[in-house]
Amino acid sequence: MAGAPSPRMREVMEALVRHLHAFAREVKLTEAEYDLGIATLNRIGQATHDSHNEGILFADILGFSTLCCLLNNGNAGATETAAALLGPFWRMHSPRTENGGSILRSPTPGPALFVNCRVLDPTGAPIEGVEMDIWHASPVGYYENQDPQQADMNLRGKFLTDAQGRFSFRSVKPAGYPVPTDGPAGDVLRAQNRHPYRPAHVHFLGYREGFKTLVTQVFVDDDERLDSDAVFGVTEHLVGDYRLHESGTPPAPDVTAPWYTLDYTFVMEPGEAKLPTPPIK
Ligand SMILES: [Fe+2]
Q1: Which residue, among 127, 118, 126, has the nearest Cα to 99 in the 3D structure?
Q2: From the CA of 138, how far away is ligand 1's center (Å)?
């Protein structure tokens, strides 16, 4: 690596090669296993296209995405963080939606969900003007890009926090879902006898100049798989209070019981506003 002009590249690549060689020595990697490893890397690339990102999914099921997230947020894992892995389903350019508006772009049966959130800085002061991007799976467990029944950008939307740092929207309660298992990530899960499910969650991506971009998920607290998320994303901090309402005055005239509400507060830390590379188009 001595010829690489970038000191950081020298550091990263030197360590990568050292650990890769140490790994092969430790397990005494056979030639057949080397072949399988290379074929798997190639298949990860071949399985990736505009609406699917097998590379991110593979990193997710190995816990690598969550490790990188925790290394770079919450004081390198020393303190609680609001951050979580991005996952393979974020799309750029979701529709800007008025506060309080619905992110249903096509009929989507399921219990109504009303989300009210605040975004604060570490001193507890509200942050105005945060672009908060939302995406989540349907009540049957599919993102719109996986599901011909859903309109383009269904259950996706972008909101702007007001002077009190608030944003709110209406949706339907998401379901947990299996990560796609028709590629190398699925092969690994099956070989390990692991289930492919993620507990139900809503994704949030908060962006504003002057603050470290917040990528996170808020999990549904009644999900039975909170302790066995296939991609290791759940922390106690990110389990939301999805409150069931079985009676009372509904929040909108067309809502019938039961419905759910979620109130959640995000903290954004000062830092660099930088959007991730979209995993899919
Ligand atoms: Fe997700």
Answers
A1: 118
A2: 10
